[in-house]
UniProtKB/TrEMBL annotation:
Catalyzed chemical reaction(s): decanal + NADP(+) = (2E)-decenal + NADPH + H(+); 13,14-dihydro-15-oxo-prostaglandin F1alpha + NADP(+) = 15-oxoprostaglandin F1alpha + NADPH + H(+); nonan-2-one + NADP(+) = (3E)-nonen-2-one + NADPH + H(+); an n-alkanal + NADP(+) = an alk-2-enal + NADPH + H(+)
Entry protein name: Prostaglandin reductase 1
Signal peptide from the UniProt entry: none
Location in the cell: Cytoplasm
Gene3D superfamilies cross-referenced by the UniProt entry: Medium-chain alcohol dehydrogenases, catalytic domain, NAD(P)-binding Rossmann-like Domain
Keywords associated with the record: Acetylation, Cytoplasm, Fatty acid metabolism, Hydroxylation, Lipid metabolism, NADP, Oxidoreductase, Phosphoprotein, Prostaglandin metabolism
Top-level taxonomy: Eukaryota, Metazoa, Ecdysozoa, Arthropoda, Hexapoda
Gene Ontology annotations of biological process type: prostaglandin metabolic process
Family designation: Belongs to the NADP-dependent oxidoreductase L4BD family.
Length: 335
């Protein structure tokens, strides 16, 4: 008999999630059925989308999210005891998974890819969904050319920091916008951005005109809102915009979203391409992308920084830290 714990969301979030929106429930796991596996969770991913998708689930619901766990018992020969599994099961310390059943993302759990000696935690970061998001969202949609100017917002986050480094690998000039001077310094001195700005303390149009007088060719948008309008209105003819997220509005009332400067004149006159995406579009190509990302990390071309929180009981605080922008790089929790 194994006792497990999980976080259940019992209230829809109003603004920033509150502690009493969650309840930690202890329960006894049942015996395995054919095709199921028992997983001891080791790593849990913390991400802004866990706030954004809150109202798409019926209350109460188990808090969703990516996790990595090691198989303790198995009734599925494809997932033997001892292998590590990546799934979207969520905030559990132990859980039962049926790998043949797609999860809420429409995808099935999978065995942790070969990270070639890198930390297993990267399986919910640069070696997993976030790496694939940066890789495909930037390369497939923006299609960067050497010498082009790329702007990334949310540049010190899990995806943005990877996008900027991939852009540098592809020979681009990279400008990042982030939320603190500490992050600016990290972007410029540690991972090679050509220039970074604290969006809270600079005039964005002025800063862009100074650092990119010939305009912006590619924009990877993690934040939406007025910042994005200001960047889009300084893009070049046939510029490309990859719309990945809208962090700036995730905590706002969904019926009263903030207004931003109109962008349609720039879209039309500069013939811009804006494309949103869900990374599972390229699901069949993830293995090749992750293998290349791992090789870049191993060679020193790319750095995959992690912001690690310890302890299952600290999951709520870890999520709030992500929503407040406290993390540099990928936020993960070691169970």
């Amino acid at each position: 008999m194994i006792k497990a714990r999980k976080y259940v969301v019992k209230k829809y979030f109003e603004g920033v999630p509150k502690r009493d929106d969650f309840e930690i429930i202890e329960f006894v796991l049942p015996a395995l059925k054919d095709g199921e596996i028992l997983v001891k969770v080791e790593w849990i991913s913390l991400d802004p989308y866990q706030r954004a998708y809150n109202r798409q689930y019926q209350l109460p619901y188990d808090q969703f999210g990516y996790q990595i766990g090691i198989v303790q018992e198995s009734m599925d020969n494809n997932f033997p005891i001892g292998v590590r599994v990546v799934s979207h099961k969520g905030w559990f310390d132990y859980c039962i998974i049926n790998p043949s059943i797609p999860d809420a993302t429409g995808n099935k759990p999978y065995i942790l890819p070969d990270l070639k000696g890198l930390p297993n935690s990267l399986g919910v970061g640069a070696g997993g969904m976030h790496g694939a998001t940066a890789y495909f969202g930037f390369l497939e949609i923006c299609k960067p050319k050497p010498g082009e100017t790329v702007v990334v917002t949310g540049a010190a986050g899990a995806v943005g920091s990877l996008v900027g480094q991939i852009a540098k690998i592809k020979g681009c000039k990279v400008i990042g916008f982030t939320g603190s001077d500490e992050k600016v310094e990290w972007l410029e001195k540690e991972i090679g951005f050509d220039k970074a700005f604290n969006y809270k303390t600079v005039n964005i149009p002025t800063a862009l005109k100074q650092i990119a007088p010939k305009g912006v060719d590619c924009y990877f948008d993690n934040v939406g809102g007025e910042i994005s309008s200001q960047i889009i209105n300084q893009m070049n003819l046939f510029g490309r915009i990859s719309a990945c997220g809208s962090i700036s509005a995730y905590n706002d009332n969904p019926t009263k979203l903030p207004k931003a400067t109109i962008i349609q004149p720039s879209i039309v006159m500069k013939q811009l391409k804006i494309e949103g995406f869900i990374v599972w579009r390229w699901g069949d190509r993830w293995p090749a992308a992750i293998s290349e990302i791992v090789d870049w990390i191993k060679s020193g071309q790319l750095k995959a920084k992690e912001h690690i929180t310890e302890g299952f009981d600290n999951l709520y605080e870890a999520l709030i830290g992500v929503m407040a922008g406290e993390n540099i790089g990928k936020a993960v929790l070691r169970v």
